[in-house]
Amino acid sequence: MQRLDGGRGAVSWDQSADAWIASQGAHGDFARQYVLDTPMLARVRAFAPRRLLDLGCGEGRFCRRLAGDVEELTGLDPTTTLIARARALGGARFVEGRAERMPFADDSFDMVVSYLTLLDIGEIDAALDEVRRVLRPGGRVLIANLTGFATAANGTCGTWSSRPDGSRDMTVRRYLECRGEMVEWNGVSIENWHRPLSFYMQAFLSRGFTLTHFDEPACTDPAHPKAEAYDNAPYHLMMEWQAR
User: Fold this and answer.
1) I need a labelling partner for 76 at 20 to 30 A (CA). Which of 103, 122, 129, 181 fits?
2) DSSP code of 176?
């Protein structure tokens, strides 16, 4: 999936896939290991779906965490290299495809999980329409996302600055404006989409979803060196919505 980065040429997840795989390792980065995995797994296990779709599964790490908890587990991702890696490691059925045009029948899943993937999707309305289509009535969509103030501090509109003690401050601008911004770290160069929280709330409410859970999870290991800095202003959120 090619996108323009405002002058630096075309980029895609395919070009960053190897760097992404290396950065995640077997257990994922700090946010996945120490902030999101525990509460995300708890919500899946509490609902106990028989058929689950991991939307934007990447190299399949979260699917492998779910193996044994879900009878029919499917991962979907548009990036050939990441799907190949996921298939090589196993743990689920992995399908190459896009969120905006999912290759699944209506009402195929009891739960759809979006684990830090909505911010990667430009055609978000088409993707959310597809989520609603493939989810059975009464099913749930479980989302982990960056907070709006965190994405607003990325790119050209906001800034991060470092203090002498190693902590960081953020400056947020144009929070209410939806926009794509290039972000780079550890050899990964991709476009993330900033959207305010109100966008997501209105998008799900307008599609007939009911909010069943909301959280801004703290670090699950208070002794972790990053815990105090992260918990000052958590930059991840979780939402769970039930389909009508």
Assistant:
1) 181
2) T
Distance CA 196, CA 216 (A): 15
> Which of 106, 99, 114 lies closest to 136 in space, CA to CA?
106
Residue 157 has pLDDT above 70, yes or no: no
Closest CA to 201 of 209, 193, 191, 189: 209
Looking at every residue in the chain, the average pLDDT score rounds to 91
Instruction: State mean pLDDT over 175-197.
Output: 92
Architecture of domain 10-242: 3-Layer(aba) Sandwich (3.40)
Distance CA 60, CA 72 (A): 14
Looking at the chain, the whole-number percentage of residues with pLDDT higher than 90 is: 79
* DSSP characters over 11-71: E-HHHHHHHHHHHHTTT--HHIIIIIHHHHHHHHHHH--SEEEEET-TTSHHHHHHBTTBS
Spatial contact of 107 and 135, defined as CB atoms under 8 Å apart: yes
pTM: 0.91
